[in-house]
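Task: sequence design from structure.
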């Protein structure tokens, strides 16, 4: 991915704080297996989760390459929602959010991520 996208990632990630119930967020590149920026409370468990999510995204893309469709991934636990938002406009990148399940709204979070996807390219 180009350097300007990585630089924009920090500014774009700041805007994720507008999402209700946000605990932590990050934006990264699944092809290089790196995160460009991280924000919020980051515990050891969440950091390990991020690493495994990158692998899941890489595998998911391999499976969807032929169909031309990508889908977001949401995992819900008793206390959290984990959202993997695969960017459509900024190819090769994704957002990873951990939200407080009681304070968040998945649909509104996804809408905000769609807006932020376009901002990565600016």
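Answer:
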């Amino acid at each position: 991915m180009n350097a300007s996208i990585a630089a924009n990632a920090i500014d774009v990630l700041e805007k994720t704080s507008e999402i209700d119930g946000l605990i932590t967020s990050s934006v990264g590149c699944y092809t290089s297996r790196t995160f460009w920026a991280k924000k919020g409370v980051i515990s050891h468990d969440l950091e390990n989760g991020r690493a495994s999510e990158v692998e899941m995204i890489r595998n998911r893309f391999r499976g969807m390459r032929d169909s031309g469709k990508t889908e977001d991934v949401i995992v819900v636990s008793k206390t959290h929602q984990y959202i993997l938002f695969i960017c459509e406009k900024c190819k090769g990148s994704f957002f990873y959010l951990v939200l407080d399940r009681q304070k968040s709204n998945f649909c509104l979070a996804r809408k905000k991520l769609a807006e932020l996807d376009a901002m990565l390219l600016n």
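Residues 3-119 form a domain with the Beta-Lactamase fold (CATH 3.30.450.30).
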